[in-house]
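Collaborator request, handled under Task 6.
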Amino acid sequence: MIRPVPHVADMAAYALADLGDPDIISLAQNESAFPVSPQAILAGQKALDQMPLYPDPEWPEMRAAIADVHGLAPQNILCGAGSMELIGCLIRAYAGVGDRVLGTDYGYAYIASATAQVQADYVKAREIDLTVSVDDILSTVTPNTQIVFVCNPGNPTGTLIANSELIRLRENLSSDVLLVVDQAYAEFSDVVENPKAIFDLAARGDTVVMRTLSKAYGLAGARAGWGYFPAEIAHEVRKLLNPNNISIPSQAMAAAALRDQAHMQNVVQQTAAIRDRFAADCRELGLTVPQSHTNFALLRFENVKQAQEADAALRANKLLMRGMGGYGLADCLRATICNEDVMRRCVTVLREV
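Structure tokens returned to the collaborator:
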């Protein structure tokens, strides 16, 4: 028998959502409820005749669009097949056996999986009221901590901490600890917290900021993400990125979607309006729903049994939310925001539980 290396044999596979039957409506993967920018679709179609070619490994149009939209230096932008690729490369570059990677109670679960791949230890700092606590992160740091990950806004909680708290965290971490701010949902919170203050942290040389086009831009299927890096860290991570990692159509679609800010902002506004109405309806049913700054809402039930009954009732009505047992929140379901009709159907089902 051909055996894998021991630490891989001991790992569990990264858990994706259970999508159920083919005819079920999924509210489980935080995909966009709205179509992609028409300009992005057109750009992708125009790029199809280039399929015999390898993609440009420098992502020139995508990089330029990111830089223009956010006022960033293009040479400090790296693009990945979703932000997952960049997260994995960062951990492989800066953590190994005996090191610690520090996240929070309800941080992005893939970070734990990527940490296990390099045989480092993944440790979680406590969150308070489903919200990142800078003081708890700082008290959990040890001399072996190499990387601190903060997901802001949080997933699966949807909660947000202020830029001032992230800056306080950075100022109180040692300069040899890398801070990674995962902002996969930040387009939904940029109206609350100006993103420039966090991007500016990269100039210190010890902070990376991650974003994706999978959520607000609706390009989950294109697998296009990006990060803003200090030059020295970008140099090391680049060694580990797959060359030609984003397809030609995906790069074209990403660049066009980024340049269509009006479309993205309209999606964010519509999503937020539906989300807030849905959250208010769920609170009227007696559920606890933290204020969300994302394209989903976390529903907390009275107990685990009630959450399971709600999940079963939703499935019986061809509606699928994401169970949160893997995050230690077995009394919760996470609902991706879909169109208004779907969210009303969910409320109708939940009212009978």
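The cover message to the collaborator said: "The chain has two domains: 6-30+262-351, 38-260. The two ends are 50 Å apart (CA to CA). Please let us know whether this matches your experimental observations."
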